[in-house]
Structure formats: C-alpha cells, structure tokens
Amino acid sequence: MRFCFILSLLAVPIWAANTAIVLNSADETISIIDTKTYSVTKTFRIGKEPHHLMATPDDSYLIVANALSNDLVFLDRATGEEKRRLPNISDPYQIGFSPGNKYFVTASLRLHRTDIYSGSDFKLLKRIPTSKGPSHIIFDKNSTMVFVTLQDSNELAAIDLAKMEVAWKISLGKQPAGVWITPDDKHLLIGILGEDYVQVVDWRTRKTVKKIRTGAGAHNFIPQGDGRHVFLSNRASNKISRIDQQTLEVVDEFPAPGGPDCMDVTADGKQLWITSRWIRKVTIVDIASKKVIKQIPVGRSPHGIYLYAHAPRS
Amino acid sequence: MWEFISTQFTILHAWLFQTIIQPALYWLGMMSWDEMAFDGTELFLIGAIELLLLYILFRPLELLAPAENWPDRKQANVDFLYSMLTKLGILPLFFFLALTPTFDWVNGTLRLSGIIPPNLEDFIPILKNSPVLSSVVYLAIFDFSDYWRHRLQHSLNIWWALHSLHHSQRQMSFWTDDREHLLDQLISSLLRASLGLIIGVPPVQFLVVTLISGAIEAFSHANVRLSFGTIGERLIVSPRFHRLHHAMAVGHDGRHRGCNFAQVFSIWDVLFGTANFDATYHPTGITDQLAGIDYGEGFWSQQRLGLTRLWRTRGPQL
User: Fold this and answer.
1) Angle of CA points A265, A271, A277, to nearest 5°
2) Residue B203 has what pLDDT?
3) pLDDT (tens digit, 9 = 90+) per residue, B76-128?
4) In 3D, which of B309, B296, B111, B96 has the Cα closest to residue B206?
5) For A8-12, A72-76, A168-172, A239-243, which range has the lowest pLDDT when averaged over its residues?
6) Cα–Cα distance between A297 and A283 in angstroms, integer?
7) Looking at CA atoms only, how far is residue B30 from chain A in angstroms?
C-alpha cells in the first residue's frame, strides 16, 4: 500500500503541486497559476460561464461546470489540460457528489431546478423543479439529503435523495448563498448574502438555532482543513470570517478586497487563496499575519478556484 | 498601452460598483442581482466611453465633410437622448428585466422536457478556441437577422407605424442610430434575445457584437459625405450607403419598400437584391412630412405619435 502511494507520488510531475486553477466566469477562460512564483503560466478557453469546479471523488480529474455551455469538462488536476468533455449537462451552476458518490447533483441557478445524475456514469436520474435561484448545495454525511439554497426565494430546500423529491423547505434570510454542514452532521451553516450573517440551522428539527454576525454579503465557505474551522467570504464588506464550528462563533477576520467569492487553503494551511470578483484578481492572504501578501491579475469575474495542493476538505 | 487602459477601466469599474451600486443593492435587499448589476455597471461605463468616443471621432468628420449643412442642430439634439438611454444600458436593462422571466421559463421548460438548446460551438467546434472568430460569426448571424427584421419593419405597415419614427429625422447624425420607438426597441430586443437563446451566444460575445455593430451603425448615420469605395461599399455599410436608406422618396419606396436595409454588412443587400449604390446624397426624412405629417419633435411627443400611428394602422397589412 505504501509502495503504491510512493509510486503515485512519483507519477505526479514535480511542479504539479504548484498549480492553482481559476475560473474566469465572464471571460470563459481558466487561468493556471504557479503557486510558488505567483504568476499566471497559462490562460485558455474552457466554455461559457464556468462558475464552480471540484475534483472527482477519486482525485483523478478536476471537473469544471460550464453553466451556459451545458457541459462538464474534466481536466488534469495538475496541468489543467482538458481530458474529456461531457455534454448535455443542463445549466450546471454548482455541482457536488454525494458522500459515497452514488449521486452527482447540479444546481441550475437560472432555471430554478436541481438535477440528480448517477455518480458513476452521469446518467440523468431526475430533474427537480424548485423555487427560484437554487445556488449552492451540500449533502448530509449519510447521503440521505441534498440541501439547496434558493437565493431568489429566500429558502432552503431539502431534497430526499432516495425519493428524489423535495422533502421540505424552510424560510431563510435575504438571498441565502453558500451552505456548509458541520462535521457532526448536525448544523447547516448558510451564508446570507443579502444580510450580514450566517444562519445556523439544525436540519433535523428545521429550526434556526443561531445567527452568526460576520459581515455584509455573507457568501461562501471553505473548510480550513483542521476539522474545526471554516472560512466564510463576505462579499460586500470585503473580508473573510473564520468560524469555529463547535462554538459557532467568529474567531478571526481577514481582509479580502474586491468582492471575495470562492476560496481554497494551501496544503500547509498557511495561505488562503480567494477569487476577488470585482477586481479581476486572485487575492492571497497569509493566515498567520492576517495580511494580503499578493494579488494576481486573472480574467474577468474570477469565481471558482482550486489548489492542487490544498488542505483537507474538512 | 491596452493593458494600462484595461487596468484603469477595471479600477474604475470596481470602484463605481463597490462604492455606489453594491451598497445600494444591499440596502434594497437585492444582492441576488449583484453579479448582474456588476455587468450592468460595466455596460454603463463602456457606453459612456463609447458615447464620448463617438463624439470625438465622428463630430469632427461631420464638421469637416457634412452631407448636409444645417442652420442649427435643433432637430438632431433629441437623438442624443435616445443614444444616452440605449448606450448607457438604461433601456437594455429595462428590456432585460422585462424579458428575463419569460426566457427563463421557456429555457427551463425546454430542459425539463429533455431539450437542451445547442450552442453554435456544438456545430462549429473551431469556434470554441477562437473568441475573435466566434465574435465575427455571431456578428454575422445577428446582422443577418437584423437585415430581415429591418425588411419587415418597412414592409409591415403596423411595424412601419413605429419604425417611421427612426426615419422621420431630417437632420440625420451619428446620434440618430438609437432613435427608435420604445415599443419598436422592445420588439427588436425580443427578437435578438430569442436568437441569442437559439444559438446560445454568451454575454461577452453579445457585448462585443453589440459594441461593434453599435459603432458601425452610429457611423453609418453620420452626417458625412463618405463612401467606402467600390468594394468596401459592398461589404460594410458606409454613411453614403445608409443615407440612401434614409433618403426622402428613396429609402421607403419602391418594390421592396426601401433599399439598403443592412445594418453592418452591406453584402446582405447585394445578395437579396435590395442594394442601391446611387452616389447622390439626398435629404433625409419621410415623404409625407412634406405634406405636413407630424412625427413629433420631443421624445415624449414622438413616442405618443408613434402609438397613435400604430392604433390607426392596427391589423397586419402587407
């Protein structure tokens, strides 16, 4: 087993660990960044409105969802090279695999719908109409539910994955966006974009248990990788909040000029990479000093970001 | 140089958005629109720059080699208001808000029925890696559609009732391009948006196409005595070529109810037999204006009279 692991490390080019991939959603391109030199090494066309990206569950590829091209593009995680393009995936805005990988789910923000595909072969299983603006998704740990924020109807929908239907909906604050689930599988953290807090919902009782004040335009989450903290981008107040998932309190704040959106954390846990939507840059924050150490110009409206060498997603 | 301009534009765009627009959206509880508003702010700034550039480039030409000499620009001035409303994105924003729910519904219904509208790139894969080529192709497709829409604006009396406002300008200048009845603009936007849905044009390309065609169309309306030469005249619409389309007793008469309908590529008129390469610079306007028919001088009177004509011409007549 250890031998296989070493072999797999050798199979990766030595420079591969230095790659960051950024989706320039309004330019239809992706930028490949060398994380050591902080320079863009390559920019190329990927498709119309690429917004979010994620690795396949086996880490073989990086999947880019092109909302307006209606396709998924499978990239080499290290080089960004296109390996495969899967057409006829309708308006994939946000994407996710259920734990166990049985399902692959897409939220169709423009078309007010959530689609469920087979996680193994991407065969469409069900299109589920929802209220307006399904934007971000998260699963419970047992893959019984996928939770979808409905940005334009101020709701959260819980879709029963076995029945493939909306099990229930609850009202939230104005324009709920990013959604995260705590490691104990108990609470949903929801960034309330139209206000200045994270709404904490006990999804089993469907009750709001807390509102964590963060900053105007609470938007999206990324775990720090220590199993305890998550970062939240506050788009209108241009800062990042670090939230303790056990105490449900903000424990730190970081500057993030230019409309922070998606984020990733370096494998050593030292840097937070953030897409700055309004200034066409990637902003890098040193977590220890809480200072912006670099801003890298990329394309228009940078959205999704992925670091090859990233912190654990927990 | 271009990088410097682009950087300065990005700074200005981000500043305007983050200082004024986004706080207003947040206050109004409309943060769902922030990405759209960000694009709208960009459109507004580009429009403002475009208006300035049009003035800097075309006004001196109008002074240098006018097709017509006017004692004043009294009639021409109202067209600037139309240009402001259109090029600064105010009317497009209004139309976008009006049309989006319908288009989302159509799009969503199609996809729920298993029909995913194809993209142009699915049929022409080479376009995937060439933004310039794909912009040219999109421009040609939209212009082809605009040519036939324009033919209908002249041949259907009910549509001409609205479109005649555009032709009623007797002091045609580079601002005249956007002088359209609001209902006429709404119909044109609906058609353009439908085409965009069918061929799947992305917003960036749509912006590029709009900017290029807008600049060429503005220039083609300029009060300038200028031809693009024998070959050029057959490819791109020149001020001379388009002036004939607006010429009194020429531009809305004859077998095709006019001539030189193309907006950007004059090749469409050549291909479909509607080109007129007469070198004469005629006065612009509509013949019945000589008999005292009033099309209005101010914005609101022009809009009101357009609706009055529409009411009198109700019922499709060919």
Assistant:
1) 70
2) 65
3) 899 999 999 988 877 777 777 777 777 777 877 787 777 777 778 778 888 87
4) B96
5) A8-12
6) 9
7) 7
Q: Do B23 and A88 touch (CB under 8 A)?
A: no
Structural domain that includes position B228:
65-312
Which residue(s) pair with A231 in the sheet?
A222, A242
Q: Reduce the DSSP state of residue B41 to 3 states and report it.
A: helix
For residue A290, the tally of other CB atoms under 10 A from its CB is 14
CA distance B225 to B258: 21
pLDDT for position A146: 97
Residue B257 lies inside a defined structural domain of this protein: yes
Q: How many domains does chain B have?
A: 1
B35: chain A residues, CB-CB within 8 Å:
277, 301
Cβ pair A50, A299 in contact under 8 A: no
**Whether residue A12 has pLDDT greater than 50:** no
Residues of B with Cβ-Cβ distance to A28 under 8 angstroms: 131, 202, 204
| Count of CB pairs separated by less than 8 Å, A with B | 97
Contact (Cβ atoms closer than 8 angstroms) between residue A80 and residue A21: yes
pLDDT of B53 over the 80 cut: yes
Q: What confidence score (pLDDT) does residue A84 get?
A: 93
Average pLDDT over residues B297-305: 95
Among B22, B31, B129, beta carbon nearest to A175: B31
According to the model, what pLDDT value does residue A37 have? 96
Specify the range with the lowest mean pLDDT, choosing from A37-41, B4-8, B291-295, B299-303.
Answer: B4-8
Within-domain flag for B81: yes
Contact A68 B200 (CB under 8 A): yes
Within-domain flag for B53 = no
A278 with B35: Cβ contact below 8 A: no
Cβ count within 10 A of residue B293: 13
Give me the interface pTM, i.e. the ipTM.
Answer: 0.85
- With b meaning 16 or more CB within 10 Å and e meaning fewer, what string describes A259-273? bbbbbbbbbeeebbb
Tell me if B104 and A174 make a contact (CB, 8 A cut-off): no
Q: How far does A35 lie from chain B, in Å, by closest CA?
A: 23
> B318 in a domain, yes or no?
no
Instruction: Enumerate the residues of chain A whose CB falls inside 8 A of the CB of residue B41.
Output: none
Mean pLDDT for the stretch of residues A148-159: 96
Closest CB from A108, A110, A193 relative to B31: A193
Question: Rounded to the nearest 5°, which phi and psi values hold at A189?
Answer: -105, 125
Residue of A nearest to B103 (CA): A111
Contacts of A194 in chain B (CB under 8 A): 26, 29-32
